[in-house]
Amino acid sequence: MSERIPTVDTFEPLHPKKVKAKSSDNLIHTRSFTGLYRTLRVAGAALLFLLFFGTVWLDWGGRQAVLWDLAESKFHIFGATFWPQDFILLSALLIICAFGLFAITVFAGRVWCGYTCPQSSFTWLFMWCEKVTEGERNQRIKLQAAPWSLNKLARRSAKHTLWLGISVLTGLTFVGYFTPIRPLAAELLTWQMGGVSLFWVLFFTAATYINAGWLREAVCMHMCPYARFQSVMFDKDTLTIAYDSARGERRGPRKRDVRPAEVGLGDCVDCQLCVQVCPTGIDIRDGLQMECIGCAACIDACDSIMDKMGYARGLVSYTSEHQLQGGKTRLLRPRLIGYSAVLLVMIAALVVALVERPMVSLDVTKDRGMFRENAQGLIENIYSLKVINKTQQRQDYRVELMEAEGFQLQGKTKLSLAPGEIVDVPVSVALLADTPASSSQTLRFKVTDVDEPWIYKEADSRFVAPLNR
């Protein structure tokens, strides 16, 4: 007897009986599958998890390699240390990420959501835990409907134990990027964690457990703003996941060795696997929908059925509206070129800003007093110089006035700062002339690295003096 592909009963091929994505418990129980896109997604998620959970444990020069030390207002990223004065660079990085997201959306739709979004990645991980502890889709549906028993209690307990374990590890890791991870982990294991750290660990534990374990697709469908405005960036050449209705209709079951044309059907055998594997529970055959996250699970499922039937793959595929209409997808188009050009310019500007970033900081604050007369009878102003060594080595600096003829800098002008050290240096500036050219003049202070004179920073302030003495 010829092998048949599992299908649902239909009354008429034109009006197939749909399998609901949600079971009677109003939950989406996805079916396991294999395929190219699943392999890519798993590999990408594994790399991201490795970076997230692993980077926080790396050391660099005797400290944690990546640490946003809020208490010290220092942001360590391997060999570089950033300060609040460098916040503009973080803003630029966020803008670059936004334009990168725009560009990839114009090109390939919601591929970010399907492959690299943390919500999607953790949801797939939690779904895997569900499969390991409660079985395949049909087994989970039966277990959900079954009355409570020792078997059900044991399986549910195992699932939630895995979920909570992953959630605690996620919360600890996330907080570990802001508080040194090693003492933080030791405090957690010995139940000695401080109130603030404990609050944030529990907060992110709960966020992971609830979002990935319980809310799942609701986050993508109702809470994520990206789903709402993505259509604005789509055009007829954007690669999206689509069902080829011209090839697939009319849909209906048939034996494996029966050609579609012989029974007046299209290539779709109405097996409903595309619905059963979808994490948001949609039927891709109904067209592009806001709930589709572009994970390509339906492509893998459909291609597996096409292989069994001996049909060509691609009934569900990454394609464009133009291609579905018989045309050709244009990869290069004004909107995509524009986004890409802006993205490249901003990346280049960020690289230049990082390379040219001054490794010494200088802030000048004038004393609240207007001016005073010193022991030599000269008018002088008092200033406070705040100097920061942004390098990873001890540095010697020289403080001087630039283009300040007629003025004399008095105070400590030679400094030696440890890596990351901040010092406040009081200095005074005396007016050598009897009569100033103006009641308020601009002074430019400069701090220069003694050994590396190309490392310097300048800052302006005002000198105030009376016109008549």
Topology (elements, then pairings):
Blueprint: H1 36-55, E1 59-60, E2 63-64, E3 66-69, E4 74-77, E5 80-82, H2 87-108, H3 111-115, H4 118-134, H5 137-145, H6 150-176, H7 181-189, H8 195-215, H9 217-223, H10 226-233, E6 240-243, H11 245-248, H12 260-263, H13 273-276, H14 297-309, E7 316-319, H15 321-324, H16 334-356, E8 360-366, E9 372-373, E10 379-389, E11 395-402, E12 407-411, E13 414-417, E14 422-431, E15 440-449, E16 456-464
Antiparallel strand pairs: 1-2, 3-4, 4-5, 6-7, 8-10, 9-10, 10-14, 11-13, 11-15, 12-14, 15-16
Helix pairs in contact: 2-16, 4-6, 4-8, 6-7, 6-8
InterPro entries: 4Fe4S_Fe-S-bd, 4Fe4S_Fe_S_CS, Cyt_c_oxidase_cbb3_FixG, Electron_Trans/Redox, FixG_C, Helical_ferredxn, Ig-like_fold
GO molecular function, one term: 4 iron, 4 sulfur cluster binding
Domain 4Fe-4S ferredoxin-type: 259-287
Helicity level: 40-55%
Identify the overall geometry. elongated
Low-confidence sequence ranges: 1-20
Helical element count? Answer: 16
Subunit arrangement of the protein: single chain
What's the average pLDDT?
90
Share in β-strands: 15-25%
Secondary-structure content class:
alpha+beta
Radius of gyration: 32 Å
First-last Cα distance = 115 Å
